[in-house]
Amino acid sequence: MCDALPRSSRRFLAIAGMLVVLAAWFPGAASAAGELSAGGAAPAFTYRLIDGKTLTPAALRGHPYVLWLVATWCPSCEGGTAVMAQHIDELRSRGVRVVEVEVANDLGYPGPPLTAFQKAAGMAAASPNWYWGELTETQTRLLDPHAYPDIYYLVDAHGRIVAIDGAPAATWPRIATFVASVCPSHCP
Amino acid sequence: MAVGSLVAMFYAVALPSATYGALSLGAVRFLTPGLAVAALLLGYGSATTLAMNLAAGGNGSLRGGSGAFGMSGLLASLLPATLCCTPVIPLMLAAIGVSAPVIFRTSGIFQAFFAIHAAAFIAGSVAVVLLSTWLAAYNLTSYCPLAPEKR
Predict the structure, then answer these.
(1) Residue B85 gets which letter from DSSP?
(2) Domain boundaries, position B64
């Protein structure tokens, strides 16, 4: 009445099942409706900075910036911060701002405070174009729906997302290209 | 020696790759003295253990009663090199053909566990390699040829 599937069919179904699981897990395939993407507008959030101040959308308007989400236990975030520190003056001369924000609750894993990153970055951390803040749960959910510990948005002066990537140390050429494109010659 | 150098070079790239964000040569810039020592121990330790186990197999230590121990020793010499620390998950993903930048965005859930316990994983791997080396040396030096059985 209910014959068992032939072995070849079962194998096919097993492989298909694994592919479906992989596809669902793969970030490129997992983009849901409403998710931020390159070409879209960056959300106009007010970010809470760790020095007690806030960074408003008005303060960012008209400036290209790197919105970088980090978890403080994340090694590539630590490495990326070191690389960012090396380039922060160059970014400043090009009018590019860096907004480095800790994801809410460090994605559920304990990590050191963001001030540890600041300290590791040394004097460069005090650069006026480098903002250090913390995301709320709501901001984290929208900006980092897949809970990546190290993801950045390159946003142009019009507030449009130019690219999304992660691990600045490894992908610095992409940030350099962005900086060169938003500010090809002399900038403020 | 050459194998040890190659394995040590691999680890010199692999160990700091989590800090760099990708498994590529650029990771070497994040190689700390501690990671360099670990890479050397893992590289040369694994190669030495492998060489000793092969030598033990050559002179007969792997035969007869000690065969099972000898073969497991050979496997043990290879295993620690694959067990080490943070690059494990990225390497596993790399094995199924995912590129490095995607790996480091995808494996966030895994990264937390490995990142938080990275030092313990590295120390554990080094300890296992050293233990394997000691076992291989013991296996090689305790070789005692048996007289052929009389039929």
Answers:
(1) S
(2) 2-141
Residue B37: inside a domain, yes or no? yes
Contact pairs from chain A to chain B, CB under 8 Å: 81
Residue B106 inside a domain? The answer is: yes
Instruction: Quote the number of domains for chain B.
Output: 1
Provide the domain limits for residue A114.
2-186
Of the candidates A26, A71, A167, the beta carbon closest to that of B22 is on A167
On whether the CB atoms of residues B50 and B78 are closer than 8 A, the answer is yes
Task: Express each pLDDT in A87-142 by its tens digit.
Answer: 999 999 999 999 999 999 888 888 899 999 999 999 999 999 999 999 999 999 99
Q: Residue A70: which CATH number? A: 3.40.30.10
Q: Which residue of B has its CA nearest to A26?
A: B106
Q: Domain count of chain A?
A: 1
B10, part of any domain: yes
Distance between CA atoms of residues B86 and A75, nearest Å: 10
Give the CA-trace dihedral at A82, A85, A86, A92, to 10 degrees.
160
Residue found under tokens 């992409």: A174
3-state secondary structure B127-141: HHHHHHHHHHHHHHH
ipTM comes to 0.76
Contact across the interface for A148 and B112, Cβ inside 8 Å: no
pLDDT digits (tens, 9 = 90+) for A20-40: 444 444 444 444 556 889 999
Enter the tokens of residue A36: 């931020």
In a domain, B146, yes or no: no
Q: Is the pTM of this model over 0.80?
A: no
